[in-house]
Amino acid sequence: MLLVSSALACSPAPNSPPAVRLVDYGVIRPVGPFVHHPDSSTAAGFTTSGPGNSIFEQRTTKVPATRGTAFGIRYRIEHIRPGQSVIVEEIIRHPPITKPDGTVVSEERTRDRVTSDTGSIDQKFFYRLVQPYEVVPGDWSLAVAVDGVTAIDQHFTVRAPG
Questions:
Q1: Which residue from 53, 134, 142, 18 is spatially nearest to 90, judged by alpha carbons?
Q2: What is the largest CA-CA distance in the chain?
Q3: What domains are there in the chain, each with its CATH number?
Q4: Each residue's pLDDT tens digit, 90-145
């Protein structure tokens, strides 16, 4: 009886929410190729997607405010029924960034419907300081919401090197 109860406890209950956990965070070395997707609501004017080969080089919440630096999180969504889709929203909050056209951005969001065939989804989500005007010191946050519920809110301090 104990074995059966244990096995049942591991199976997601019908209509139970997925579980989301932070797997890694810190400074990242981006490894492409990356595809740019125009998005005027972001500070850089685009978002990117890639094969997921980027490497976490240093687990830290202290990030140098240097052009080219990338930082982010790796997370896993579990307990999804095979074939079930979830809405994943990735949210970046940062100090105000003034774009060349004068628009000020302090939050960026992407939202995707993702389906799992295996019961889990592994994702990397990071920000790269590409443009000079994006190099803004202060508190940055990378958050993940699944089906409208915020599950991760990882903060980073972007600061002058040294």
A1: 142
A2: 66
A3: 17-157 (2.60.40.2390)
A4: 999 999 999 999 999 999 999 999 998 889 999 999 999 999 999 999 999 999 99
